[in-house]
Design brief:
The protein is 36% helix and 24% strand. It has 292 residues and is α/β, with parallel strands linked by helices.
Length: 292
């Protein structure tokens, strides 16, 4: 038997053993090919009911291959009862549910999601989990108020953006409302925000420019944000500009390690990360999470 044949047979055996040990992988494959529009019921690591749709997030959550496990661990340890959390780019509500569970009935979660398709799934998840401490705001956030066009991706819902995504995917345009975070918080008389999760596919810098009061007041939030050059390029800026913007506002950014701890992010010119930005005056709050 040739070495190449032995290698091929070994790979086939390993694959067969993996599938046999994880029957839900077979179920996912069957659903994907026979009933792609049917969600599969599962649960999150913190106990929320989750419907796994036929997309990237659904595959990872249902098959147990992990989705941003590092970030989940940090948030599960950091968020406390009574906090106010803003979820910008809530999508189907993965982090909305996590925050809702952690802040409890005395807390408050504000979920911004402008895509009509994603909104429907977000509302289903909130209803299934009886999340009475969540307010859904059906708009995008940015530097200016007004009507904007959003590209809703047909296959990769996590890539929805106000700019045509730099990816091999088809998208349709829908007109939506955009507001400034500062204006919303002022109108609703929300005095402080404890934590912000921000994932808007390259629009993060625009969101922050519409949140100057949030960044400059005396009760500044921690921010977990996606920062990727492949996402910022369609917006006409480099990811390092987002990193520097927060640094100029006296935020220190950290990578999240595999055990949910924080490690200082070094200055660099290219990014493909999720980072936690901490106001300098609040570093003591995360001191127990920081590794040198």
């Amino acid at each position: 038997m040739s070495g190449q044949l032995r290698t091929t047979l070994r790979h086939i055996k390993q694959t067969a053993l993996y599938v046999a040990s994880k029957p839900w992988v077979i179920l996912w494959w069957l659903r994907k090919h026979l009933a792609p529009d049917m969600p599969l019921r599962s649960s999150t690591r913190w106990g929320s009911t989750w419907l796994a749709y036929n997309d990237f997030l659904g595959a990872h959550t249902f098959c147990g291959t992990g989705f941003e496990d590092n970030e989940q661990l940090f948030l599960l340890n950091y968020l406390q009862e009574g906090m106010t959390v803003v979820d910008i780019g809530a999508h189907h509500g993965f982090y909305t549910l996590l925050a809702s569970t952690k802040v409890g009935p005395k807390g408050n979660v504000i979920a911004f999601e402008p895509s009509p398709r994603e909104l429907a799934k977000l509302k289903i998840h909130l209803s299934l989990n009886h999340c009475h401490n969540v307010q859904i705001v059906e708009v995008a956030l940015g530097a200016e108020k007004g009507k904007v066009n959003m590209f809703v991706c047909l296959e990769h819902s996590g890539l929805n953006s106000l700019r045509l995504p730099n990816a091999d995917t088809k998208a349709t345009e829908v007109e939506i409302e955009q507001i400034r975070l500062d204006d919303y918080l002022k109108e609703k008389q929300i005095p402080k925000v404890d934590f912000v999760k921000m994932d808007v596919e390259g629009g993060e810098l625009s969101v922050l420019k519409g949140a100057q009061d949030v960044l400059l007041n005396q009760l500044r939030p921690l921010i977990i944000y996606e920062i990727q050059d492949i996402r910022t390029t369609p917006w006409g800026y480099k990811a390092v500009e987002l990193y520097q913007f927060l640094k100029d506002h006296r935020y220190k950014s950290f990578n999240v390690t595999s055990n949910g701890r924080l490690k200082p992010c070094p200055d660099k010119q290219e990014f493909d990360d999720n980072l936690v930005a901490v106001p300098e005056e609040k570093l003591s709050l995360v001191e127990k999470f920081i590794d040198a």
